Amino acid sequence: MATPAQLRKSALALPETSEAVRSGKAAFSVRKQEFATLGQDGLLHLPLSDDDADAALAAHPAAERWAPKGRPTGVQLPLSEINGKDLNWLLRRSWLVCAPKRLAMQLEAAYSGTTPHMLPAVGGPATRALLSAGITDLDAVARHSQAELLALHGVGPKAVRILTEALAASGQSLQAHG
Question: Is the overall model pTM greater than 0.85, yes or no?
Fold first, then answer.
């Protein structure tokens, strides 16, 4: 059910994700660590933890253990047999395996409804938008203008007000112009 366009959109929505073509495969990486590849045969390869791989195998009959070089590291399954919700879950879980620990903790905090200690509580959508843009603390917020923050999908006037107040409390402010 999922398409390469959906895969691309979902993968690139994760923080610090880049896309490349390697050996004829679409490859998505976080800080140079591949977390998803799609071959011309339509097979999606995902490194996953053992528990997540077991869950994927149980949920998707066409899924198989993926064992490059003889060592199981995740699953492979036809992209066309994954629905959108499962695709998002699988990509996020694979991204978490490959991302640096601190970045992974920030994304998990955003999805769990808690916020990383570095940002004030601005709500889940705004937190995810900030993290996706690489804005992980108040110092990074201060390098942006109000217009730049509002241009991020998920960041609204209330979030900007909260961020502005938190910056003022720490003796900082938003950039004057974007």
Answer: no
pLDDT in 10s for each residue of the chain, 178 residues: 899 999 999 999 888 899 999 889 999 999 999 999 999 999 999 999 999 999 999 999 999 998 888 887 899 999 999 998 899 999 999 999 999 887 887 777 766 655 444 688 888 888 888 888 888 888 889 999 999 999 999 999 999 999 999 899 888 999 987 5
Lookup result for tokens 């591949």: 34
> CA angle, 83 as apex, 82 and 87 as ends, to 5°?
70
SS (H, E, C) 77-143: EEHHHCCHHHHHHHHHHHHHHHCCHHHHHHHHHHHHCCCCCCCCCCCHHHHHHHHHCCCCCHHHHHC
Q: Which of 85, 58, 24, 83 is nearest to 75 (CA)?
A: 58
